[in-house]
Write a structure and sequence with these properties.
It is built from 13 helices and five strands. By secondary structure, it is mainly alpha-helical. It folds into two domains: about 210 residues, Rossmann fold (3-Layer(aba) Sandwich), CATH 3.40.50; about 90 residues, Tyrosyl-Transfer RNA Synthetase (Orthogonal Bundle), CATH 1.10.240. A three-stranded parallel β-sheet has the order 1-2-3. A two-stranded parallel ribbon has the order 4-5. The chain binds tryptophanyl-5'AMP. The site of tryptophanyl-5'AMP (TYM) has 26 residues, from strand 1, helix 1 and helix 7.
Length: about 325
């Protein structure tokens, strides 16, 4: 397909904590798969990460590791733009403009804000509150048609659409109104010990809840073996089997099966056998990624090159939309 006829995809991930299986199945896995059919822009959203206190040296290191992980998951810098948000100042500039069109009321209703404000009550800063506006700026700068994310970002996407509509209603056609692209099975991977809670890379003190993408095979096997076991003995989806349902989701988010096919695979099997099979599937998916990661991490010059080249491309794309928005609100021409 011709570049210009392709639709555009934008997505991002915070370099806070180590990337988890939830991040992979909800987002990263799809990002790589979409590269041939779309113009893709994938960002490491370090400006979002500082809404919660970070150790500066660690943040810098994690951002680089996350970029390396994008590449290890198959995102190809020849096809997609991969860059650090803080390298493109248009994000901050458009976020400011959009702040003046976003309402306190709608931002106060964001469940992620309420949740994080509760957990970080010593530091409920303006950035945390305005976080979804920066996220809207990210997406709108690149005229994204589709935004591949997990279920937890749906509300932020809705806000982004509302802001784009509101702005365009005032000033004409400045922004593209994006759609969320949420996978079926991987949309919401739950904690292994507490499957009523989302698997979260940065907010969980209990390591047994989260599979990290760089976990060694035996660690993965152990975490899955120790995951909560629901009552009963059948392997099937059921509201009273949140643990088993979650493992079924992990299993089929990796192998692409339907719910019925996955249940059929474990017909008459015991929980123990099922967990072993899920662990094997996860290890099978992550081992090649881990091997590529180790290889790539050694090649510092290559990673530096990707960073320099992609940021330049991102800047050029973002500037074009930013110029339109500046003009629309009445800033003098430069
Ligand atoms: P973040 O960094 O929390 O998560 C990155 C991506 O991983 C998905 N995800 C999950 N999917 C399934 N199950 C889970 N347990 C799980 N945990 C996380 C998230 O839905 C997300 O897609 N605000 C965003 C980052 C962002 C962004 C953007 C995304 C900033 N600007 C613009 C898209 C477009 C965030 O905090 O994601």
């Amino acid at each position: 397909m011709e570049e210009t006829l392709k639709k555009t995809i934008f997505s991002g991930m915070q370099p806070s904590g180590l990337p988890s299986l939830g991040n992979y199945l909800g987002a990263l896995k799809n990002w790589a798969a979409l590269q041939d059919d779309y113009n893709c822009v994938y960002c490491i959203v370090d400006m979002h990460a500082i809404t919660v206190r970070q150790d500066p040296a660690e943040l810098r290191e994690r951002a680089r590791n996350l970029l390396t992980m994008y590449l290890a998951c198959g995102i190809d810098p020849e096809k997609s733009v991969i860059y650090y948000q803080s390298h493109v100042s248009a994000h901050a500039e458009l976020a400011w403009i959009l702040n003046c069109y976003a309402y306190m009321g709608e931002l106060s209703r964001m469940t992620q804000f309420k949740d994080k404000a509760r957990r970080h009550d010593e530091n409920v800063n303006i950035g945390l509150f305005a976080y979804p506006v920066l996220m809207a700026a990210d997406i709108l700068l690149y005229n994204a048609d589709l935004v591949p994310v997990g279920e937890d970002q749906r509300q932020h996407l809705e806000l982004c659409r509302d802001l784009a509509d509101r702005f365009d209603a005032l000033y004409g056609d400045v922004f593209t109104v994006p759609e969320a692209y949420i996978p079926k099975a991987g949309a919401k991977i739950m904690s292994l010990q507490d499957p009523e809670k989302k698997m979260s890379k940065s907010e969980d003190e209990n390591d047994g809840n989260v599979i990290f993408l760089m976990d060694e095979p035996k660690v993965i096997v152990n975490k899955i073996k120790r995951s909560v076991t629901d009552s009963g003995s059948e392997v099937r989806y059921a509201p009273d089997k949140p643990g088993i349902s979650n493992l079924l989701n992990i299993y089929r988010a990796i192998n692409g099966e339907t719910a019925e096919e996955a249940e059929r695979d474990f017909d008459g099997k015991r929980y123990g056998d099922f967990k072993a099979a899920v662990a094997e599937t996860v290890v099978g998916a992550l081992t090649p990624i881990q091997n590529r990661y180790e290889e790539l991490a050694k090649d510092r010059a290559y990673i530096d090159g990707v960073i320099a080249k992609s940021a330049e491309k991102a800047r050029t794309m973002a500037e074009e939309t930013l110029a339109k928005a500046r003009r629309a609100v009445g800033f003098p021409d430069r």
